[in-house]
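Q: Two folds, back to back.
A: First:
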Amino acid sequence: MPRSVSGVEMRKRQAAHIEAPPQAPGQPRPNTCCLCWCGCCKCLWNEDRMERSERQTCTKMDSIETAEEQHPSLDEVLSWARSFEMMLRSLEGREIFREFLRSEYSEDNLLFWLACEELKKETNPSVVDEKARIIYEDYVSILSPKEVSLDSRVREGINQNLAEPSNLMYEEAQLQIYTLMHRDSFPRFLNSSVYRDLLANRRRTCLDT
């Protein structure tokens, strides 16, 4: 008959299992331990596995929330009032300014300026030709519903350059629209509820923190 195991020996075996060194990476782990024959969640290994899973889930959610909560700082919003150029360099600044221009039905001025900025970066002749013609059809042609306000001299120069487009062919027109936005739209933007509400919100956030 097989020798019976005493209670003392059983406790020694259980203690030896608990104090055993951790499994090396890549080695299979038993499905159960001597203290949890059913493999339930009370097993120390199962508890450790669940804790690691919860930590990983929390880390992922924190990353998502951080990405969703990215907003311009108070200092950045204040800097826009000091510099039109600084606002245009900021993605958030351009978006909030575009929202204001949309309320005044002059959003196309900013879109034209941005399209010219993209064109200036191009070096491929075929891409330059395509983008230059798209800009013309969208913002310069008198047949376009999004036509921007350019004087006749600048418009005539564009018409002449269209025969041989270059990445700088709209430079003078872009400067004219930039000046228009800076002198005309920008002061109204700073006094608008769009900007003032954002500024007040950033100040409240700073006080709360």
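A: Second:
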Amino acid sequence: MSSPPIHPNLQQRRESFARRAESLIERKYAISTDKSGELIITVQGDLTQQEKRAVFLTVHDLGCNHASFQDFVNSPCMTEIKERSCFIHVDVPGHADNSGALSDNFAFPSLQTLGEDLVTVLDYLHVKYVIGLGEGAGANVLARFGLKHPSRCLGLILINCTGSAATVLETFKTKFISWKGDEVGQGAEDFLLYHKFGHQLVGDNPDKEKIVQDFQSRLHSTLNSKNVKQYVKTFMTRKDLPLKNCKVDILLITGMLSPYSTVVEKLHKDTDKEKVTMMKIERAGDVLADAPAKVAQSILLFCKGQGLLTSVVMPGVDRQRAFSTSSGGSNGMSMEEYDKPNIRRLSITVNDQLPPIQSKK
């Protein structure tokens, strides 16, 4: 006798439990690159399920490491996305928790070199393609990755991304930042706080004191000050970013209170509007801390436009009704199958660049 059919609701609960278990998987890797030295990688989620998941590649900003994106991914507003995704968090050289000082003869890579070398991470982990998610200096790195390797990139979500080289005034000011040798002095800390939060220091966020204290604590106790200084120097010697030549879709995000809001506006102005969208969030400086729900919603909308995370329902929409409608009701697809990236739903330009996904038999 054949087994009785599994009730759809029970099947969905089992799939939900399995997704939640997979999203809790975390692994670390030390990956050697051609020109950027060793990168420490933290993977959230089960990469063996990547054909059914959205895979994000994250790169952090100055004065941070992978923990800034890991905290965001672990926030309640990201639960639905997290359970259907994998996140590959990159620590730039010397920025993993409690790293020792980089060797004096180590040449810290440029943002361009870092971006180009990220493909080594994908190859090592056997990942076909990713959505780039970066902030500040990390956004600049991922933009260069997308420019160099468009066939491995489904799209870019760039927070406070700078498109131009550092101005003469900007460079002049940072030369006088007090690092007290290799320690983060008050001037350096003030610069990093301004770079991260802007003049308003997280605006109306009621938790702003704790957010700033956590940032300062990690800066002084978790990160190696000498290595932080190297990343800052690399950011200050960055070259112009020719984003208008990018072949993948891009979402630019900035906060109205961010010190880089006007820079992001200028970057958007010089790009192809058919490929690049900009979102400005009111009353926010550090958008990941001040407006995580809005950022999560923007990520979801962007991914849906790329044919990813299609079973994740937008807030305010009944899940069962939305799934029945979007999946055609009785076509026999489970939510697991519906979440599988569908390359045919991607934009024409990206579609031409991508290798086909092989379905499991």
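Q: And?
A: The first helix runs from residue 8 to 23.
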